[in-house]
From TrEMBL:
Keyword Membrane: yes
Highest classification ranks of the organism: Eukaryota, Viridiplantae, Streptophyta, Embryophyta, Tracheophyta
Keywords: Membrane, Transmembrane, Transmembrane helix
Residue ranges of the TM segments: 16-36
Pfam families linked to this entry: Nucleotid_trans
PANTHER family named in the record: ARABINOSYLTRANSFERASE RRA3
GO molecular function, one term: glycosyltransferase activity
Name of this protein: Nucleotide-diphospho-sugar transferase domain-containing protein
Species this protein is from: Hibiscus syriacus
Length: 379
């Protein structure tokens, strides 16, 4: 934030009074973009069955037909904004170059590249109504965003009860129908309504997640991995005996990021990522949002393809826990059982509501056998 700190005083105080955003949430092939200056966590549904990647909602539904044109307009607006930022030669980055510390090489083991990407300059005009809500809700310009419609009212209730309980007040429900707007208002839950869509959030909050972020990358995400190797990456050796001396080829593998829960900082690279994902989801009707998210984030530039250049970080898989880690490993291990995660995302299991309630019983109400009745996977 040193970069921002050096920005023109008047401009900055104006801007810091007005919390604005690009809040971008992806839902069933849909991107919602707003402007936001510091960062946010997005949790959104796993819209397909994990194992086979079968879409639950048909891309030809009226839902999609209504959303796509609006989505396209949002992308156009976003591109326009991006161009403006670029034409402004990325104010923050330039200032950093001018005012920031000049770097030299150094002794082995001492040289570090920039750890944090400059943030983009926010713009309240993108969505003044949302900007006002964000100003009221965000803490340190950060917030949690979740999307919900009436089908997931009960899950939403578990969600906001858990998040309220851990003292996280900077959260916002994006309501997808009027019923949810009313429901949130009657429960004192900050709510914003935009276009119709679909969504369910299966994340239980056990601690304030903002206390467990590094904030050094464009994207920090939960992993679908279940141990050190799968979560953080490993050397996967491919064996081709016919090659004799050179039979072993080394590959690098990492389990995908779970795009149902990630934190993103408002950097140009983050915007580009979400823009790319939204664009592909709009064009490729059977694509899986999570797969696209990972491909855009991880595939490097190649001949004929300009890959995204964006720093990313894998969240601690015990702190930001997926339901496979919980049900396959943690609940059976006396030491791991004592650790309290920040969140548990029930992404690996279809009986989400029951498992979410059990997670709360286990971690909040201390019912030590609350998780026992469930099978490791789905039957
Ligand atoms: C979706 O609708 C379009 C136009 O009505 C049609 O051409 C296409 O085959 C449909 N796709 C699916 C998967 O049903
Ligand atoms: C996983 O990595 C952590 C941190 O490096 C280490 O403390 C732990 O022992 C590792 N666990 C296993 C099973 O290797």
């Amino acid at each position: 934030m040193a970069v921002v700190g050096r920005r023109d005083k008047a401009q900055q105080s104006l801007r810091s009074r007005i919390a604005i955003a690009i809040v971008t949430g992806l839902v069933i092939g849909c991107l919602i973009a707003f402007y936001f200056p510091h960062g946010l966590i997005i949790s959104y549904p796993s819209v397909r069955t994990r194992r086979f990647g079968i879409p639950i909602s048909s891309p030809n539904s009226s839902l999609y037909r209504r959303i796509i044109p609006k989505l396209k307009k949002q992308i156009r607006d976003l591109k326009y904004k991006l161009r403006l930022v670029e034409q402004g030669k990325d104010h923050a980055e330039k200032q950093f170059l001018v005012l920031g510390e000049q770097h030299k090489g150094g002794p082995f083991g001492t040289v570090k590249a920039l750890r944090t990407n400059p943030t983009v300059i926010p713009d309240t005009l993108v969505n003044p109504r949302l900007a006002k809500i964000l100003e009221e809700v965000a803490v340190e310009k950060e917030l949690v965003v979740a999307l919900a419609n009436s089908n997931v009212k009960e899950t939403l209730e578990v969600w906001f009860s858990s998040i309220k309980r851990v003292g996280t007040n900077n959260y916002l429900v994006i309501a997808l129908d009027d019923h949810i707007v009313e429901f949130c208002k009657s429960n004192d839950v900050p709510v914003y309504k935009r276009d119709p869509d679909d969504g369910i959030d299966a994340v239980v909050y056990l601690q304030n997640p903002f206390n467990h972020l590094y904030r050094d990358s464009n994207v920090e995400s939960m992993t679908d991995g279940h141990d050190n190797m799968t979560a953080y990456g490993y050397n996967d050796v491919f064996d081709e005996p016919a090659m004799g001396w050179a039979r072993f080829a080394h590959t690098m593998r990492i389990w995908v990021f779970n795009s149902g829960f990630f934190y993103t900082r408002p950097t140009i690279a983050s915007i580009e990522l979400l823009d790319r994902v939204a664009d592909r989801l709009a064009r490729q009707e059977n694509s899986w949002d999570q797969a696209v998210f990972n491909e855009e984030l991880f595939f490097p530039p190649l001949p004929g393809y300009d890959g995204l250049l964006a720093a990313k970080r894998t969240m601690d898989f015990y702190m930001f826990m997926n339901s496979k880690v919980l049900f396959k490993t943690v609940r059976k291990d006396d030491k791991l059982k004592k650790l309290k995660p920040a969140i548990v995302h029930v992404n690996y299991h279809p009986d989400k509501l029951q498992r979410m309630k059990a997670v709360l019983e286990f971690y909040i109400n201390g019912k030590r056998d609350a998780l026992d009745a469930f099978p490791d996977g789905s039957e």
